[in-house]
């Protein structure tokens, strides 16, 4: 595409920071915030999300439609800076491997849409305006989810939201989206704008990828309706589907997910699990371990159809989860499945579910022990654990990263304790009980109140 002065962006060479997502993909949060993707760090429109940069544009609920967003000043600026080869702050999660070792950028640019790069250059003018349209959707239609994983929160779980309300632990200033008048506006937006936009994409015949995440996507009626529609209209064979699911259910109204998925072009089921058995059920409140394992096993046939990424154990490394990593490794080896590993995102020093809260010496020792175990008992598909633990030995922990780490740890521990009390954790099973597997870790945890 040539702009008014005839300058042709196709002469630009994509730099190492180039990402195809702003030309192909679009993300909507359960609070109707739009982003480049779920990993980008941007300023909120009205309601800050956990990963966002500081600040918001307005205090009022004033969501953009996809049409308004796609070639907005913000999106044009992002594309222009990317084409200028800038390392843009919005993409720091990819630029600095903040969540895991592999970047989301590579997924979009090298795996999903490498064939679109030239088109992106040719379709974009010097203002960043593009004639390309989104063909990959990550629409989190609502926060509905019956789980209350302890490193998650109300933005992504209706069960967490209900608990926060019941505990009176929300702030009408900070959590504006939880005000009843705003909840109504959001629901109205979801029904009258977001869902029709997703349907429009499904019916356009141009859709190439859907990423189903939530909340819990398998609890969305629209998920089942669109998936059936794509199968019934013979479009499934050119659509890639990805999921992040708690795998609590795999069927709805007589339709089984694993009967629909073989019809699609490609499948990537990221099945969240952060520990097995009791620890898993403690970390992921709502999880029934046996049910998860049964559902997971019933989808394993997908790896024969689509390869190892079709059915994956998607692990978020938490502090208590460090004490069940060995079981996760053994299970992955037994089932011959791949694992993805990310570290609990510590966006401040109170995120005590993150293993990076541990003091350096203890953290390195635990990492070394787990590396040794993985090397002795793992396989090529669990090597990601070793790589992640190696990276944790050099990645800054709380003490190295946050000047207020002492105060943050006290606040974070108190928050977890309040939740534990509310959920009725008892001495038989609690954070302390899990951490007591390692005397040094338990001593550190117990001493936190005394640190300031
Ligand atoms: S570089 Fe990463 S954060 Fe930025 S748009 Fe691409 S995938 Fe998203």
Task: Pick out its properties.
12 strands; about 450 residues; 20 helices; globular; eight-stranded mixed sheet; binds iron/sulfur cluster; alpha/beta
General description of the model:
By secondary structure, the chain is of the alpha/beta class. The chain is 41% helix and 11% strand. Strands 2-1-3-5-6-9-11-12 form an 8-stranded mixed beta sheet. The chain has a two-stranded antiparallel sheet with strand order 4-10. A two-stranded antiparallel sheet has the order 7-8. Strand 7 and strand 8 form a beta hairpin. It is globular and about 60 Å long. Residues 19, 21-22, 36-37, 39-40, 91, 93-94, 104-105, 108 line the site of iron/sulfur cluster (SF4).
Write the layout of secondary structure elements.
Layout: H1 21-24, E1 25-28, E2 34-35, H2 66-70, H3 73-83, H4 92-95, H5 104-112, H6 117-122, E3 136-139, E4 148-149, H7 158-166, H8 180-204, E5 209-212, H9 221-232, E6 240-245, E7 251-252, E8 255-256, H10 257-260, E9 266-272, H11 277-283, E10 284-285, H12 289-298, H13 302-306, E11 311-317, H14 325-335, E12 338-343, H15 360-377, H16 383-392, H17 398-401, H18 405-423, H19 431-435, H20 439-447
Bound molecules: iron/sulfur cluster.
Iron/sulfur cluster is lined by residues 19, 21-22, 36-37, 39-40, 91, 93-94, 104-105, 108.
Please summarize the sheet with the most strands.
8 strands, mixed
DSSP, total strands? 12
**Helix share, percent:** 40-55%
- SS-derived structural category: alpha/beta
Terminal Cα span: 60 Å
> What's the oligomerization state?
single chain
Strand arrangement, largest sheet? 2-1-3-5-6-9-11-12
Radius of gyration: 22 Å
Q: Which small-molecule ligands are present, each listed once? A: iron/sulfur cluster
Task: Sum up the overall morphology in one term.
Answer: globular
Average per-residue pLDDT, rounded, comes to 93
Question: Helical element count?
Answer: 20
Please report which band the strand proportion falls in: under 5%, 5-15%, 15-25%, 25-35%, 35-45% or over 45%. 5-15%
Q: List the uncertain runs.
A: none
